[in-house]
Every structure is written in structure tokens, then in C-alpha cells.
Design goal:
By secondary structure, the chain is mainly α. Helices cover 53% and strands 0% of the residues. It has one domain: Orthogonal Bundle (Non-ribosomal Peptide Synthetase Peptidyl Carrier Protein, Chain A), CATH 1.10.1200. The protein contains four helices and no strands.
């Protein structure tokens, strides 16, 4: 049995709550735009909510390029948290 990270569970909850077209069960493979109905404005709102919820430094647009699926959002946030906690990134 795989134990899920509390951070990943929290991120999924935020994404599901903000998704214009939330699925019955959110999967890491769901595409933010095509499957969940996010548009560019809603994606920026999601970014701000994640930054504030996890006390992250602001993401640059180039950091967000290629983040297309829920699993990639989780990877981005958990990677940023690891960098912040190790002192590699300053907020």
C-alpha cells in the first residue's frame, strides 16, 4: 500500500476545488486545461493560491511552462518546497 504525501493530497484538493470542470475523482494524469477546464486566468489564480497556501516564492512564467497535468503541479510544488527547505531558494 502506498502512503500519499500530505502535501500531494492538499494540492489535489486545491486543484479539485478550483477546477471549473471538476471530475468525480481527480487523477494525476488529468490535464489542467483539456480535462479540468482551466483557462489562463484560472491557472494564474491557482498559482497564487498554491504560492500562498505553501508559503512559496513567486513562480516565474518560465517555471510554469510545461506544467500541464495535476501530477506536474504536484512535482513543481513539492520540488519548490524541497528547495526552500534546503535553503536553495529564498522567498
Amino acid at each position: 500500500m502506498t502512503v500519499e504525501s500530505p502535501v500531494a493530497v492538499r494540492i489535489r484538493g486545491i486543484v479539485a476545488a478550483m477546477a471549473p470542470q471538476p471530475p468525480e475523482k481527480l487523477a494525476d494524469t488529468h490535464r489542467l486545461i483539456e480535462d479540468l477546464g482551466f483557462d489562463s486566468l484560472r491557472l494564474m489564480e491557482l498559482t497564487v493560491v498554491l504560492e500562498r497556501s505553501f508559503e512559496l516564492p513567486r513562480y516565474r512564467p518560465e517555471d510554469l511552462m510545461g506544467v500541464l497535468r495535476v501530477g506536474e503541479v504536484i512535482d513543481l510544488v513539492t520540488g519548490t518546497l524541497a528547495s526552500v527547505n534546503s535553503g536553495e531558494v529564498t522567498a
